[in-house]
Design brief:
303 residues, alpha+beta, D-amino Acid Aminotransferase, Chain A, domain 1, D-amino Acid Aminotransferase, Chain A, domain 2, 2 domains, 9-stranded mixed β-sheet, 7-stranded antiparallel β-sheet, binds pyridoxal-5'-phosphate
């Protein structure tokens, strides 16, 4: 993965990639007090286009408000900065990473008076999860209790939970992990939401213990509008996984990734998600057509 591009956008300036530096005594480095977004852009017949940029920036501002980070720019300015950095990066297809954080001049948990920095970078990024049937394991770590932190915000400190899951499952040879919530129901992947399919209907965990919003909402909308498939919000126990025919992960990075198997307590449950005419693959095709700008009905989602 080559993450080097000519410029980084920092507090309203484009700086050379090599000049992007921060001090060791940066507040967020010590306490995980930065908020971030992961946004994809794709080549289309008419310039690279950023998918659902406005929704990502809405979530960035929401996450910032949770930590009382005051972004000294408007949403429209950040949206324009994202478009500009893609244009200046000479990357056709990749990932955008807006980051807002408590910087220097303050130590200790109370973050106020630390300088707030806003940084946006864009780099070339292909597939996040393998482009083949993936094997998933239910992690020994649970998703954080929703009363321990705001689950709707994308705050770096909370990602400690997700990193532990990734370390655990990769060590055991799995492609990705899956977290249960504090009550033992299926919640989400460390960087993805999850859907199951049975009798041509989608099932997905309800909001509360998962990161809500962008790809999950997109999938529910396009499954209904393009394929006539409804979604039910469901509390799913690992013991009930056998009831489903298919399973797939969704997320900005993971896009739509059909799941081959989920392992729970050494038992491996296989799904038909990878069969050629599976519903998961149909949903994936609809989604990829939209992000690549091949479906004009959804061109409003592309910037
Ligand atoms: C924990 C977690 N869940 C789900 C998602 C998928 O969210 P989105 O589709 O908004 O990118 C992500 C990605 O940001 C994530 O980090």
């Amino acid at each position: 993965m080559n993450i080097k591009t000519p410029y980084i956008w920092e507090n309203w300036k484009f700086i050379d990639w090599d000049d992007a530096k921060d001090h060791n005594l940066t507040h967020s480095l010590h306490y995980g007090t930065w908020v971030f977004e992961g946004i994809r852009f794709y080549p289309t017949s008419n310039w690279p286009k950023i998918f659902r940029l406005k929704e990502h920036i809405d979530r960035l501002f929401y996450s910032a408000s949770v930590l009382e980070l005051e972004i000294p720019f408007t949403k429209e300015e950040i949206i324009q900065a994202c478009i500009d950095i893609v244009a200046k990066s000479w990357v056709e297809m990749g990932y955008l990473r807006p980051l807002v954080y408590y910087g220097t001049w303050k130590m200790g948990l109370y973050p106020k008076w630390a300088k707030v920095n806003t940084v946006i970078s864009a780099w070339n990024w292909g597939k996040y999860l393998a482009d083949r049937p993936i094997d998933v394991k239910i992690s020994k770590y649970k998703r954080m209790h929703p009363e321990t932190a705001d689950m709707n915000a994308k705050v770096s400190g909370g990602y400690y939970n997700n990193v532990l899951v990734s370390l655990e499952v990769h060590k055991e040879g799995f492609d990705e992990g899956l977290l249960l919530d504090y009550e033992g129901y299926i919640a989400e992947g460390p960087g993805e939401n999850i859907f199951f399919i049975k009798d041509n209907k989608l099932f997905t965990p309800a909001l509360w213990t998962i990161l809500p919003w962008i790809t999950r909402a997109t999938i529910m909308q396009i499954a209904k509008e393009k394929l006539g498939i409804d979604t039910e919000k469901a509390k799913i126990l690992p013991e009930n996984l056998k009831d489903f025919d298919e399973a797939f992960f969704v997320g900005t990075a993971a896009e739509v990734t059909p799941i081959w198997s989920i392992t729970y307590n050494s038992e491996k449950i296989n799904f038909k998600s990878w069969e050629k005419d599976s519903t998961s693959n149909k949903i994936k095709d609809v989604y990829m057509n939209i992000v690549y700008g091949r479906d004009w009905e959804y061109s409003d989602w592309l910037s």
